[in-house]
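worker-03 picked up job from queue 'complexes'. Input manifest follows; two sequence lines, order preserved.
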Amino acid sequence: SYELTQPPSMSVSPGQTASITCSGDILGDKYASWYQQKSGQSPVLVLYQDTERPSGIPERFSGSTSGNTATLTISGTQAMDEADYYCQAWDSSTAVFGGGTKLTVL
Amino acid sequence: QLQLQESGPGLVKPSETLSLTCTVSGGSISSSTYYWGWIRQPPGKGLEWIGIIYYSGSTYSNPSLKSRVTISIDTSKNQFSLRLTSVTAADTAVYYCARHVDLGYFDSGWFDPWGQGTLVTVSS
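worker-03 finished. Artifact:
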């Protein structure tokens, strides 16, 4: 089966660092992408190729990988970063999304 | 700026066929650089990939949906479409279309941008 595992939820205080993990066997071989989805909105790409930021995405969003785990890090988290975050990768010609992490900023 | 817009019926009866179209503006769907994809999200749940299509008509689909899914492309209209047969309540979801960008091999890629999504409810 095709699986990417994320923590269902996490909370962070404004100004602190949030690190959201995504684990899966495929991540040892394939790039991860990350999407931010605010309430009632469409997903927006925030990272691709594990660490690359699209134009318009703030520098506080960064990515890293280690073994079979990809991590999205938000430094100096702001209230506007409260959202659901999804990782995505490809496995055997199938695009796979993680289950999503609800990030609460409080 | 590339924009994608989903369209189609918001209500489909059980056992019938769901049909949606994605209209692309601000760029050509015939570009050899991109695939074009469908993703769905049941209410309150996560994202599920449905499939992608190349301008040539080549497709890849989610194995869990493959027997019911047809994705097609009309380059003359700058549109691509989704058909999902024999729908049930489990197919109720917001359906998104998106451009798929990659590094030259499709399984290296990501989805950007996304359309605004359209809610399809399966109910009698």
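worker-03 released lock.
The first strand of chain B starts at residue 3 and ends at 7.
The two ends of chain B are 39 Å apart (CA to CA).
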